[in-house]
Design a protein that fits this description.
With about 170 residues, the protein is an all-alpha fold. It is about 95% helix and about 0% strand. It is built from one helix and no strands. It is rod-shaped.
Length: about 170
């Protein structure tokens, strides 16, 4: 019996060792699979991190490009406004110069007209003075002649009246 027992013990040991080897293999396989899963999870985390970094860099590039575009748009608008203001200023300056030229031309025309009117008025005044002097000389001669005649008539009338009515000195109220 001893040999049966030995055979049974040896078979049991072999069976147990195959089960132990299978368990060991299963454990090793489980460990390898766990390591592979851990490596895959780590790689997934790395890929996600790299993707997040790439997304952040792209977002930064996009933001920088958007900022640069906004700056160039603002500069273009500023330059356009500046050019419009310059054009308006130049147009207003040209209008002011044209108005000044028109005013100078009107002033010069008015001054010329005023000088012509002044010369005409001076000529009319001289003509009137010459006419007045001529008429005055004639009138003066006529007035002297008329005055002499009137004076003579008045003296004659006074003499006649005095002769007609001699009043006494105390009847002066009549």
């Amino acid at each position: 019996m001893n040999s049966k027992w030995m055979l049974a013990a040896a078979s049991g040991a072999v069976l147990l060792s195959q089960a132990a080897v299978a368990d060991l293999n299963a454990g090793v396989n489980a460990a390898v699979n766990a390591q592979a899963d851990a490596d895959a999870a780590e790689q997934t985390v790395r890929d996600q991190r790299d993707a997040a970094k790439a997304d952040a860099k792209q977002a930064e590039k996009d933001a920088r490009a958007q900022r640069d575009q906004m700056e160039s748009d603002a500069k273009a608008r500023h330059d356009a406004i500046k050019e419009d203001a310059k054009a308006k200023r130049d147009a207003m300056k040209d209008d002011a110069n044209a108005m000044g030229d028109d005013a100078r031309a009107k002033h010069d025309a008015n001054m010329k007209k005023m000088e012509e009117n002044r010369d005409a008025a001076r000529q009319r005044h001289e003509d009137a003075m010459n006419n007045a002097q001529g008429a005055g000389a004639n009138a003066n001669a006529e007035m002297k002649a008329g005055a002499a005649g009137v004076n003579a008539e008045a003296k004659a009338d006074a003499k006649v009246d005095a002769e007609k009515k001699e009043k006494s000195w105390y009847n002066f109220w009549d």
